[in-house]
């Protein structure tokens, strides 16, 4: 059909989230070395306009909230060519330890996320 499949938007959200963390001074790999895992427990996406095949898109990601054991990220996907808003969304993540039990987000990570 010449448009991006709807599931790609969640992948683009993940890429945006990964890069946001990296820009903040740490990575998912760093978190996992500390036995902190952030699985997605909720995801939403509002599709406003189709993304056409081979268009360049911007993914804007921000931390929308940080609790003791949860983090919410929000996303805006825009078309690079004209700035048109293509989609918005958010993901909610639980902080789990290596036994898959809820664990507090370390203060230094919280502080980095809240910058």
Summarize this structure briefly.
This protein has 115 residues and is an alpha+beta fold. It is 26% helix and 33% strand. The protein starts with 7 loop residues before the first helix and ends with a helix.
Q: What does the radius of gyration come to?
A: 15 Å
- And the CATH topology? Thiol Ester Dehydrase, Chain A
Biggest sheet features: 4 strands, antiparallel
Helix amount: 25-40%
Strand content range = 25-35%
Query: How many domains?
Result: 1
Chain-averaged pLDDT: 95
Ranges with pLDDT <50 over ≥5 residues? none
How far apart lie the N and C ends? 41 Å
Order of helices and strands: HHEEEEH
Q: What is the number of E strands? A: 4
| CATH 2nd-level architecture | Roll
- What's the level 1 CATH class? Alpha Beta
Strand arrangement within the widest β-sheet reads 1-4-3-2
> What would CATH call the homologous superfamily?
Hotdog Thioesterase
| Class derived from helix and strand content | alpha+beta
Count of DSSP-assigned helices: 3
| Envelope shape | elongated
